[in-house]
Specification:
There is one protein chain. By secondary structure, the protein is α/β, with parallel strands linked by helices. It has two domains: 95 residues, Urease, subunit C, domain 1; 269 residues, TIM Barrel. Helices cover 32% and strands 23% of the residues. The protein contains twelve helices and 16 strands. Strands 3-2-1-4-13-14-15-16 form an eight-stranded mixed sheet, covered by helices on one side. GO terms for molecular function: hydrolase activity, acting on carbon-nitrogen (but not peptide) bonds, in cyclic amidines. This is Amidohydrolase family protein. Keywords: Hydrolase. Pfam families: Amidohydro_3 (PF07969).
């Protein structure tokens, strides 16, 4: 029986954790629970994967001790600019509605120094500690903060020397057309390098879905960026807005560049309506992200998979003025997805973990992300018997590698 104890020979080069190494070998690990292999890494990229014990280990070597190896997790929907992680506890307040949370956040964020470089850095460090090495994060852009949040998140990512790759969505949390000037800010963010612009509930927040979507798609076409829209509205109201987004995507030729986040309505609709929408979503390449909240209706994820609709998982906010919950662990989100959708078989439990890792690659421009040659060397080692065991126990990450560097060990960030 395989031993899952962590290998004692962790590194030969004392500088391995603090800087890049041109080449190294991660020896004796079990990718996705398969037979042991040695992973060869050059310039931060996996160059080859060979049978364990066959690699040249005369150079810098990290002994994986036969542990389970997974690709670095990808958080496809985060809000790293808004957390009070690391600060004194903040009690929940305000009204528990979308409009109520927006108003409460606007009133209270300055008191808690949101956004701040320290706050965003603390969240990204938690991501790393749990094995997340890339994220798509929504960053608030509004008349109160301007583009300051984007600068803050970029500075936080730089503070970690790129260990967590960050893709930014300029996000109009307080609405788009109901706040004159927000469209101009989104346009400025896109011009300044934001990969995506966001939207939020075109019908219930702006109460003018045509105007919001026309404005967003015009910027996306002109600036060559993607669109990532929060859609909380349920039932037929949510379905109506999905149809509008599908139509705009088709007319703008933005196939594969539009994402719907949350999209709770999809799980609430009868099967025939789901099928109609899924056919169109698949046709225009609209992707989906979910945080799998417990009270929501399960998504038709198998039907989405059959239609090749990309589905990613995310943490949403972590200890912010919307919710006191969250710890940045994508295995926890994958477990919540599995529980919400009543997954039981080893195959399905493994698919839930893939949603939190390889399945999220497209959201951060990593279409071929896995433990394979050519991929960035982002690797997580866990003391687990297999992938389903890792999912249900969420054991401490024994080692996290980002871009070929060891950045966390035994739950401690080394940067």
């Amino acid at each position: 029986m395989r031993s899952y104890r962590y290998g004692a020979r962790v590194r030969r080069d004392l500088g391995l954790c603090s800087g890049a190494v041109a080449s190294l070998t991660l020896a004796n690990v079990c990718p996705w629970g398969a037979a042991p292999v040695d992973v060869l890494i050059a310039d931060g990229t996996i160059s080859d994967v060979v049978a364990a014990g066959t690699a040249d280990t005369s150079g810098v070597t990290v002994d994986g001790g036969g542990l389970l190896a997974l690709p670095g997790f990808i958080n496809a929907h985060a809000h790293v600019d808004k957390s009070w992680w690391g600060q004194p506890w903040v009690s929940y307040g305000g009204e528990p509605t979308t409009q109520g949370r927006i108003a409460h956040e606007r009133a209270e964020r300055d008191k808690y120094g949101i956004p701040s470089i320290d706050g965003a850095t603390a969240v990204l460090r938690e991501f790393l500690r749990h094995g997340t090495t890339a994220t798509r994060t929504h960053v608030d852009v509004d008349l109160g903060t301007g583009l300051r949040g984007i600068d803050t998140v970029r500075a936080a990512a730089a503070a970690l020397d790129g260990a967590v790759e960050v893709e930014i969505v300029a996000f109009p949390q307080d609405g788009v057309v109901r706040r004159p000037g927000v469209l101009e800010l989104l346009d400025q963010a896109a011009a300044a390098g934001a990969s995506n612009i966001g939207g939020i509930d075109p019908a219930s927040i702006d109460r003018d879905p045509v105007a919001q979507l026309d404005g967003l798609f015009e910027i996306a076409e002109r600036r060559g960026v993607g669109i990532d829209i929060h859609l909380h509205d349920g039932g037929e109201l949510g379905a109506f807005q999905m149809e509008l987004i599908i139509d705009r995507t088709r007319r703008a030729g933005l196939h594969g560049r539009v994402t719907i986040a949350h999209g709770f309505a999809l799980g609430e609709l009868p099967a025939h309506r789901q099928a109609e929408l899924l056919d169109e979503l698949g046709e225009v390449g609209i992707s989906w992200t979910t945080v799998a909240p417990a009270p929501s209706a399960p998504l038709p994820w198998r039907d989405m998979r059959e239609r090749e609709i990309t589905l990613g998982l995310g943490t949403d906010g972590i200890r912010d003025l919307w919710s006191p919950y969250g710890d940045g662990d994508m295995l926890g989100i994958a477990l919540r997805f599995a529980q919400l959708h009543r997954l039981r078989t080893d195959e399905d439990l493994t698919r839930a973990v893939r949603l939190a890792s390889t399945g999220g690659g497209g959201f951060v421009h990593r279409p071929a992300f896995d433990l394979a040659p050519g991929a960035r060397a982002d690797i997580v080692l866990l003391d687990a018997e297999n992938v389903p065991d890792a999912l249900v126990r969420a054991p401490r990450r024994r080692l996290v590698m980002a871009g070929g560097r060891v950045v966390a060990r035994d739950g401690e960030v080394l940067l």
